[in-house]
Amino acid sequence: MLTDSRNCMVDEALTILSVLASNQEAKVAIVKASTIPVLIDLLRTGIPRNKENAAAILLSLCKRDPENLACVSRLGAVVPLTELAKDGTERANRKATSLLGHIRRLQQH
After folding, report:
1. Which of 47, 69, 99, 108 is deepest in the core (most CB within 10 A)?
2. Gene3D superfamilies under this entry (predicted)?
3. Is position 41 within any domain?
Protein backbone atom coordinates (compact mmCIF):
# COMPACT_ATOMS: atom_id res chain seq x y z
CA MET A 1 0.00 0.00 0.00
CA LEU A 2 2.92 2.37 0.66
CA THR A 3 4.21 1.95 -2.87
CA ASP A 4 0.85 2.32 -4.63
CA SER A 5 1.73 4.31 -7.75
CA ARG A 6 -1.77 5.81 -7.91
CA ASN A 7 -1.27 7.17 -4.35
CA CYS A 8 -4.77 5.97 -3.38
CA MET A 9 -3.85 4.21 -0.17
CA VAL A 10 -0.49 5.70 0.79
CA ASP A 11 -1.98 8.31 3.12
CA GLU A 12 -4.19 5.75 4.86
CA ALA A 13 -1.36 3.22 5.16
CA LEU A 14 0.92 5.85 6.73
CA THR A 15 -1.79 6.86 9.19
CA ILE A 16 -2.21 3.25 10.29
CA LEU A 17 1.54 2.70 10.54
CA SER A 18 1.96 5.84 12.64
CA VAL A 19 -0.46 4.41 15.19
CA LEU A 20 1.11 0.94 15.09
CA ALA A 21 4.67 2.26 15.39
CA SER A 22 4.08 3.10 19.05
CA ASN A 23 3.68 -0.62 19.86
CA GLN A 24 6.93 -2.58 20.30
CA GLU A 25 5.71 -5.76 18.58
CA ALA A 26 4.32 -3.73 15.69
CA LYS A 27 7.62 -1.84 15.41
CA VAL A 28 9.46 -5.12 14.98
CA ALA A 29 6.98 -6.27 12.32
CA ILE A 30 7.17 -2.94 10.47
CA VAL A 31 10.97 -3.10 10.33
CA LYS A 32 10.93 -6.79 9.37
CA ALA A 33 8.67 -5.94 6.42
CA SER A 34 11.49 -3.75 5.00
CA THR A 35 9.46 -0.58 5.43
CA ILE A 36 12.34 1.74 6.37
CA PRO A 37 13.64 2.20 2.78
CA VAL A 38 10.08 2.88 1.56
CA LEU A 39 9.57 5.49 4.30
CA ILE A 40 12.85 7.18 3.38
CA ASP A 41 11.76 7.24 -0.26
CA LEU A 42 8.50 8.90 0.81
CA LEU A 43 10.57 11.55 2.64
CA ARG A 44 12.12 12.38 -0.73
CA THR A 45 9.13 12.10 -3.06
CA GLY A 46 5.90 12.18 -1.07
CA ILE A 47 3.34 14.91 -0.73
CA PRO A 48 3.84 17.10 2.38
CA ARG A 49 1.40 15.12 4.56
CA ASN A 50 3.06 11.82 3.61
CA LYS A 51 6.51 13.23 4.30
CA GLU A 52 5.30 14.35 7.71
CA ASN A 53 3.86 10.92 8.53
CA ALA A 54 6.94 9.10 7.22
CA ALA A 55 9.17 11.22 9.48
CA ALA A 56 6.92 10.53 12.48
CA ILE A 57 6.98 6.78 11.83
CA LEU A 58 10.75 6.72 11.35
CA LEU A 59 11.17 8.63 14.60
CA SER A 60 9.00 6.08 16.42
CA LEU A 61 10.94 3.19 14.88
CA CYS A 62 14.29 4.72 15.84
CA LYS A 63 13.58 5.82 19.41
CA ARG A 64 15.73 3.73 21.73
CA ASP A 65 16.74 1.53 18.79
CA PRO A 66 20.29 2.25 17.62
CA GLU A 67 20.09 -0.48 14.97
CA ASN A 68 17.10 1.12 13.22
CA LEU A 69 18.70 4.53 13.65
CA ALA A 70 21.91 3.33 12.00
CA CYS A 71 19.85 1.83 9.18
CA VAL A 72 18.02 5.11 8.59
CA SER A 73 21.32 6.98 8.51
CA ARG A 74 22.99 4.42 6.24
CA LEU A 75 20.08 4.56 3.77
CA GLY A 76 20.58 8.28 3.24
CA ALA A 77 17.75 9.83 5.24
CA VAL A 78 19.81 12.78 6.47
CA VAL A 79 19.37 14.91 3.32
CA PRO A 80 15.58 14.54 2.99
CA LEU A 81 15.19 14.97 6.77
CA THR A 82 17.25 18.16 6.64
CA GLU A 83 15.08 19.48 3.81
CA LEU A 84 11.95 18.53 5.75
CA ALA A 85 13.27 20.30 8.86
CA LYS A 86 13.67 23.46 6.78
CA ASP A 87 10.65 23.35 4.50
CA GLY A 88 8.14 20.97 6.05
CA THR A 89 5.05 21.55 8.12
CA GLU A 90 5.50 22.44 11.78
CA ARG A 91 4.96 18.81 12.83
CA ALA A 92 7.28 17.53 10.08
CA ASN A 93 9.91 20.02 11.20
CA ARG A 94 9.71 18.77 14.81
CA LYS A 95 9.89 15.09 13.82
CA ALA A 96 12.70 15.58 11.30
CA THR A 97 14.72 17.74 13.70
CA SER A 98 14.32 15.21 16.49
CA LEU A 99 15.34 12.31 14.25
CA LEU A 100 18.35 14.24 12.96
CA GLY A 101 19.39 14.86 16.57
CA HIS A 102 19.21 11.13 17.31
CA ILE A 103 21.30 10.39 14.21
CA ARG A 104 23.93 12.98 15.22
CA ARG A 105 24.19 11.52 18.73
CA LEU A 106 24.57 8.02 17.29
CA GLN A 107 27.35 9.18 14.97
CA GLN A 108 29.19 10.86 17.86
CA HIS A 109 29.41 7.58 19.78
Report:
1. 99
2. Leucine-rich Repeat Variant (1.25.10.10)
3. yes
Check which CATH number belongs to the domain holding 96 and give it.
1.25.10.10
Amino acid type, 72: V
Within the chain, residue ranges assigned H as helices are 10-20, 24-32, 36-45, 48-62, 66-74, 78-87, 90-108
Structural domains of the chain, count: 1
Q: In Å, how far from its chain's centre is CA 26?
A: 15
φ/ψ region of 3 (left if φ > 0, alpha if ψ in -120 to 50, else beta) reads alpha
Global pTM reads 0.93
Residue 78 within any structural domain of the chain: yes
Report d(CA 16, CA 109) in Å as an integer: 33
**Alpha carbons 85 and 20: distance in angstroms, whole number:** 24
Residue at 2 is within a domain? no
